[in-house]
Structure formats: structure tokens, C-alpha cells
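Case study.
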Amino acid sequence: DQQVKQNSPSLSVQEGRISILNCDYTNSMFDYFLWYKKYPAEGPTFLISISSIKDKNEDGRFTVFLNKSAKHLSLHIVPSQPGDSAVYFCAASGDDKIIFGKGTRLHILP
Amino acid sequence: DTGVSQDPRHKITKRGQNVTFRCDPISEHNRLYWYRQTLGQGPEFLTYFQNEAQLEKSRLLSDRFSAERPKGSFSTLEIQRTEQGDSAMYLCASSRGTGVHFGPGTRLLVL
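After joint prediction, the assembly is written out as follows.
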């Protein structure tokens, strides 16, 4: 039973364009959501988070949107840069532990 | 202190051997987590500590696995009688509040 789902295993985006990574969750008790970026052979790096009391959080090129009624969140990266190529994990928390999705591999094309 | 550190970064062992990994969290982070990641999957929760108390263990953590955080600072994860299915990246993370920061991981290969 996967509580956090990232249905796109991979995504290719042209450099300079907007990258949109999507995530769905099933547990309505989740109240905090995070996005992590991971390069090969490294641990996940925290990118941005959002509390369930908000619907948007922005940090530089990264914006996370939360739609609680749809149990959906998305990460927007604009403009996309070559260094953004990595695996992105969506994660959710509701009781101190964090549940991760399977990740989306983002390729930024030159 | 630049972040969560883990030692060793890589470990190759033979099936049946015991291995122990160490995690040093960010100073003053009271929560410490262990996760496991296999190819094509997201990190899977194993266990977590609040200070020295182990508060939750996943059913993924069989009786061959044991984790400790004796003084509420560093933590160790021991796997006894390793099996080939234990091959994975073992990730440690720490937090104080809502931000959870991961270490670089220990990649385990069981031959």
C-alpha cells in the first residue's frame, strides 16, 4: 500500500523551461510535505517543504503547490537548469516518520 | 558541523557476516532516523529515535536488525547474519523540528 505516489518515473524538460513534478498521497493524516533531490551515490538533499495549512510555498526557483482536497502536490522549477537533473522524491509526514514516493528522474535537455 | 555523517560509505561483506554502521547527526538534532533505499525505490523507513529513545520500528526491521542511540547523539545500525537481500543504501537522517536532513548513506553489498 503506497501512501505517497509519484506516477511519472521520468521527465525530460528543455533547459530554461518549467519543470513540473507531481505527487499524490492517500493518507489524509499527513500534514507536512517535503521534496528532496538526489544525485547518484549521495543521500537525498532537502529542497523545499510545505505545511498542510498552506497551499503554496516558494523558495527561489522552486515552488511547491498543495491541493489538499485532491491530495496532490507539485514541485515547479523555473527556469530549469542543467544542474537540476537528478531524482526528485516527494515525501509526506503525519506522525513523525516520513514516507517517500518512488521518485521521478528529471532530465534537463540542453 | 556541516551535516549528517555516516561511516563507512561503502561496505562489502559475505553472506552470514555481521555489519555495523554508524551515523553522526547534526549537533542538537534530537530526532534520528534510519532509512533503507534499494534501486528504483524511494527511501523506506526503518526506525527512529527521539534523543536516546527508539520510538518506532518498521516491520521491515527484522530481528536481525538492531539500532541504538545510547547517549542521544550518534547511532549505530547492526545487521546480523547478513543476507543478499540486505544489499541496499542505508540512509541516516536527523531533525529538530520539521526539517529532516539526510547523510550520504552507507552502501552495503552482500555477496
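Observations recorded in class. Chain A touches chain B at residues 4, 6, 32, 34, 36, 41-46, 49, 51, 89, 91, 93, 96-103 (CB under 8 Å). Chain A is about 0% helix and 55% strand. We will return to this complex in the next lecture.
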